[in-house]
């Protein structure tokens, strides 16, 4: 680093706090509109891949933001790669040198491409019990804050840092987190290749820069047997419900040999139609989870053996149908985590200590994102001790107000 560059760097550090303050002010100035956006999404809970009203509310929000004379408006792409996904982009041009300087100036650095992710799908029957309306709100808020801070750079007393790179701010609407994994569809479509770093934040029972979200595999298990009169000719039947019960019990026995960090949970979706008909068809749905993809593959093999053994014992045929996408564990990004905590503490956030972290949380398609681009998936407390995926949390997700 040359001496004049060192001076510039220290001046930059001093001014950073001022830009952060401006980012927070911009968010506060938009708080009313952001709250309306969140309440609109909460009021019309929509399931994975069907979030049409949320998609409309969010794209309307960005399209209606006033253009600034120096940096233009948000460019909004509706139904971006998926029917209910969207993309909103805004670009800040960075430092531009005078024509006289142009010949000696080094080539401009490539633009920094930052992405903020919004989720907005709900759960069946209990609405926004995971608070994804708040993920949409804080994703939009963070993007507005960054835009405001960047716009203020040209007016700040020290002027623009020399050779400041251009910045592309992207807000990605990522549907179907609760079921399917919309982010995985967007990864497959190459969307994350256009981003250098991504940010999102999820409502929770605590403030945390990182929680250990684990890998997950979904499987639907179908048993095909043979119907018969359950009283007159039971020996003619092949009982698919027996296979379902055995599969459930096999997994329950397997638990003793499972690592404490593994999770297996499921339901019987179809258990037959009438007690006096030997069930010819049953269907179960299971989620398998483990802290890493390697452990998940071990668990998957053990679980599949349980399902197949139940078929063998009862004489049923079994069909295992994997979910469309496996969710990967979230890779922690130590640098982003450290910076997030340092800045959060300055704003008065009381982060949960690492010792008090629940060893396991859930799973998220952000895990897959963390394998292709650096990012952070933080958690924020919303003033309620209700647990996610409960009706109490649905109520909390619309009553949250900043103190
Ligand atoms: Zn959830
Ligand atoms: Zn969630």
Automatic annotation (TrEMBL):
InterPro entries, per the entry: Amidohydrolase, Bact_exopeptidase_dim_dom, Peptidase_M20, Peptidase_M20/M20A_hydrolases, Peptidase_M20_dimer, Xaa-Arg_dipeptidase
PANTHER family: PEPTIDASE M20, XAA-ARG DIPEPTIDASE
Source species of the chain: Python bivittatus
Pfam short name (any one): M20_dimer
Residue intervals of the Peptidase M20 dimerisation domain: 219-312
GO molecular function: dipeptidase activity
Protein name (record): Peptidase M20 domain-containing protein 2
Similarity section: Belongs to the peptidase M20A family.
CDD domains for this protein: M20_ACY1L2-like (cd05672)
Gene3D superfamilies assigned: 3.30.70.360, Zn peptidases
Signal sequence region: none
Top-level taxon: Eukaryota
């Amino acid at each position: 680093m040359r001496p004049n560059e060192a001076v510039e760097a220290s001046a930059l550090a001093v001014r950073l706090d001022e830009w952060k303050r401006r980012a927070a002010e911009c968010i506060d100035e938009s708080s009313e509109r952001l709250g309306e956006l969140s309440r609109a999404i909460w009021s019309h809970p929509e399931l994975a891949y069907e979030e049409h009203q949320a998609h409309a509310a969010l794209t309307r929000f960005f399209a209606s933001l006033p253009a600034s004379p120096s940096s233009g408006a948000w460019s909004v792409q509706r139904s971006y790669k998926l029917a209910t996904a969207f993309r909103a982009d805004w670009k800040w041009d960075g430092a531009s040198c005078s024509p006289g300087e142009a010949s000696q100036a080094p080539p401009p650095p490539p633009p920094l491409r930052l992405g903020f992710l919004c989720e907005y799908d709900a759960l069946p029957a209990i609405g926004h019990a995971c608070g994804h309306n708040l993920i949409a709100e804080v994703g939009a808020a963070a993007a507005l804050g960054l835009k405001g801070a960047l716009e203020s750079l040209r007016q700040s007393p020290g002027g623009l840092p020399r050779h400041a790179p251009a910045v592309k701010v992207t807000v990605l609407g990522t549907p179907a987190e609760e079921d399917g994994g919309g982010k995985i569809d967007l990864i497959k479509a190459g969307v994350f290749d256009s981003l250098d770093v991504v940010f999102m934040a999820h409502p929770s029972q605590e403030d945390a820069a990182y929680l250990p979200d684990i890998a997950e595999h979904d499987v639907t298990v179908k048993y095909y047997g043979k119907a018969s009169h359950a009283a007159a000719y039971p020996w003619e039947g092949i009982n698919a419900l027996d296979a379902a019960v055995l599969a459930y019990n096999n997994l329950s026995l397997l638990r003793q040999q499972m690592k404490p960090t593994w999770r297996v949970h499921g339901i019987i979706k179809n258990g037959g139609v009438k007690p006096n008909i030997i069930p010819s068809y049953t269907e179960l749905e299971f989620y398998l989870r483990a802290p890493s993809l390697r452990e998940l593959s071990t668990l998957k093999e053990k679980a599949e053996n349980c399902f197949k053994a139940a078929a063998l014992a009862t004489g049923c045929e079994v069909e295992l149908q994997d979910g469309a996408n496996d969710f990967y564990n979230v890779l922690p990004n130590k640098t982003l985590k450290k910076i997030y905590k340092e800045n959060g503490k300055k704003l008065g956030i009381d982060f949960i200590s690492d010792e008090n972290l629940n060893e396991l949380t859930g799973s998220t398609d952000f895990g897959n994102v963390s394998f292709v681009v650096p990012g952070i998936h933080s958690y924020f407390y919303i003033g309620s001790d209700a647990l996610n995926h409960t009706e109490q949390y649905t109520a909390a997700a619309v009553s949250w107000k900043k103190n």
